[in-house]
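Provenance

Sequences were taken from public entries as deposited. Structures were produced by running a predictor on each sequence independently, with no templates supplied. The record for Anti-sigma factor antagonist from Nonomuraea glycinis is shown for reference.
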Amino acid sequence: MTVTDTAPLGGAGPAEPTTVQLSGELDLVTCPALRDELHDVLRSSTRLLVLDLSSVTFCDACGLSLLIDLQRCARQRGIVLALTQPRPCVSRLLRISGLERSFPFVV
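Predicted structure for Anti-sigma factor antagonist:
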């Protein structure tokens, strides 16, 4: 799993979203380290944190749990966590789990 900041955290204005592109697999192996990285991003995020899922090739229950945990922590900080461009396999999992209704999506 790779995390790439596509908007500079220090340079983004408060009205601009912080965007993070995830790539690879969101699973039992990658989630622990990814959780730490994304919580670090939350500490310096603008009011909108967008996770670009266009390069995520696989997601399991650990990946969904990570998204739920990150959303909870974001809300506690007054940050909206939104998703964008999930691949069909991830979209299907979000839809089947009912989480599709829990996250705002950015086009």
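The domain at 2-101 is CATH 3.30.750.24 (Transcription Regulator spoIIAA).
The mean pLDDT is 90.
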